[in-house]
DNA sequence: TTTAGGG
DNA sequence: CCCTAAA
């Protein structure tokens, strides 16, 4: 399948790279403001390759999403820098893409998952894939036709991933998440668990892709530790993680090599063609006749690309709010992970006065979305009322937005979703009564009676896998305890997660990770509770817990915790 | 303000 | 999640 994927890369972690002593204060140093976030467009080939997007492609992206018959060109040697937030001229506009491309390119002839696996194995020897070795071999031996992960295997091998039950139970996955065998409904479960919101899309491939990307792409979570292989979520070895420390990011991108398609699936060939089908033929069904034929609400997910449309006021407001938020984000210590979040880099917000045909004048600001300069009306960040639920759909209609892959759009949605949470809720609350239309339904906000009288709002926002992963990674980078740092770094775009929340969640994760996985049977009893954390993640948590315990947050000379995880893996020198 | 722990 | 003590 040809998917244009924006890949974000930033030099977050530069400090580590340079081996510069990073005092705790360094994290919040203004210097970070200059840290760039760069988007590059790449295409994920059906065989898992990442191919840089060509100019043409860039131009086409919009159409791509909009035009069923559009096709991506296969030729490509230029990596486009779509957008560069903050400053240009970043030294290290390294490239995950490039490197990853080189890494994976070789196996283009045969669209064979095995190859890829083998390839990956080469690059991330031993420990890296330790978790998955059997898995890989299995695939390899079966000539690309993976053994269907079913219960049968579960018992025998830890590699077996089991995906059954309507309530997606990650705990049963023994370290891997297999998306292939899931039903649409199950995929919906996973999707929700992953992104924290529902989806109505019924396209399996679409779902799988989304989920996979959501879990692996660096855009949202640095892919330092997890990767999707053949539709399985796997944990990368520590040596990978150490990359941030020694500066060679180069390999990381490989993780971003989301190989959702070359699976994995019952028949590599079949799936392949299947993909193309989607890739060119029905194309996400964006406009197909079947586009939610008679379905309920707008399938926002599927509308990520409509025709260019003048941004609606609501959209503008949304955007403005985001901007303001970013501004106020206090020096934004690190754009990291803010990812596509920073839609409109502060630097580009220059008001411009325009005169409309009808005589009115509006002030617009240059919005550099996707590298394009667009003027959008400038309005106060204050929103009059809660945005419609599907405001996101509108967002996605916006031209520049289409520059980003659906994936980006998706993540963006996720982010947006999060953005308009707390503050907004409070705002609305303050606004008391008023729009009953602004149903609180979509905000998991309920008021709970508090012991001491009043009613208190209780934000119960289930943690999504993505968030958990970000948290884990944050801890690995900053160390447990430095919640505010982690908050800033990894959760800059998640306004509703406070450092305390992170702390609490981590506490829970620890608990979960050390509690031996209950026998499936018991667990199996349809536990409507929170989603189980995938084993790979729990494992990571354990590791971090250990290394953090052994090497208490030592401030001072030695870089606090960063790289502490290397303490264990002697394999580091390997790569 | 941020952390750490208890509720 | 919330609250609070302590730093």
UniProtKB/TrEMBL annotation:
Keywords: Nucleus. Residues 463-510 form the Myb-like domain. PROSITE patterns: HTH_MYB, MYB_LIKE. Residues 419-433 have a biased composition (Basic and acidic residues). Residues 1-28, 265-308, 419-449, 547-575 are annotated as: Disordered. The keyword Glycoprotein does not apply. Residues 455-514 form the HTH myb-type domain. This is Uncharacterized protein LOC109001935 isoform X2. It comes from Juglans regia (English walnut). The lineage of its organism: Eukaryota, Viridiplantae, Streptophyta, Embryophyta, Tracheophyta. The gene is LOC109001935.
